[in-house]
Design a protein that fits this description.
Blueprint lengths: L1 H20 L11 H8 L3 H13 L3 E4 L2 E4 L4 H25 L2 H20 L2 H18 L3 H12 L2 H10 L3 H17 L3 H19 L9
Antiparallel strand pairs: 1-2
Helix pairs in contact: 1-3, 4-6, 4-7, 4-10, 5-6, 5-9, 6-7, 9-10
């Protein structure tokens, strides 16, 4: 019973996290326990646990009116890219050192799907595959610390990445090309090349951010 409760709380957390980061729940919106119980069809216990975790992630906060959605500001997104500049490049070095043939095959499968959906201009599926590719790098780094930091921060960019594609529909095509170059570095176990290519990848994504304002990600 305890295991089932924890598993349900995890699912509720992931659902609410996605709703906040995707923009379904808007910045400044009040979300009550009663409303969430009704929408998700669960009791208050897993809702309360999920809300506690969301507060730890600084995605919601208490207010006189109730639980309020904080979301992400452009300044906070810029901070995320600062983290990625420093940590994700190190994770990529480690991934190039430790990656296995099985993990390379998994990456190749992701890239093949990315190229397929890029031709179809399926932005939502491309975003999901982009996340899968980056998570594969974090896993291959063999660092639980890097993985924990980067998984959380990469997910927080969801709305920004969607807005970025709306403004520049070439960005995902460029991103797929950059992913393929990274794959080649991982396949060669070239740590320096993986470091340099990931830094370039992060810088290119951050550059798109500089062309946006707060209204673009609402």
């Amino acid at each position: 019973m305890e295991y089932r409760t924890v598993s349900l709380a995890d699912r509720v957390f992931e659902s609410l996290e996605y709703s906040i980061l995707s923009g379904r729940y808007k910045k400044g919106e009040i979300i009550s326990e009663k409303r969430l119980c009704s929408e998700l069809g669960v009791s208050r216990t897993p809702i309360r646990e999920a809300l506690s975790r969301l507060q730890e992630e600084d995605l919601i906060s208490d207010s006189p009116s109730g639980t309020v959605v904080l979301g992400m500001t452009l300044d906070e997104i810029r901070d995320v890219y600062e983290v990625k500049r420093r940590v994700e490049v190190l994770a990529s070095e480690r991934a190039a050192r430790h990656i296995t043939d099985k993990e390379l095959k998994h990456m190749r499968d992701i890239l093949d799907q990315q190229e397929y959906y890029a031709h179809k201009h399926d932005v939502i599926r491309l975003m999901d595959l982009d996340t899968e590719f980056h998570l594969a790098i974090y896993d291959a780094s063999r660092s639980r610390i890097f993985r924990k930091i980067l998984r959380s921060q990469h997910k927080k960019l969801m709305r920004y990445r969607r807005a970025s594609v709306r403004q520049n529909n070439k960005r995902f095509t460029e991103s797929v090309i950059e992913h393929n170059k990274l794959y080649d570095a991982f396949e060669m176990h070239d740590e320096k090349l993986a470091h340099d290519l990931m830094l370039e990848h992060v810088e290119n994504a951050a550059e798109s951010l500089n062309k946006m304002n707060e209204t673009d990600i609402r």
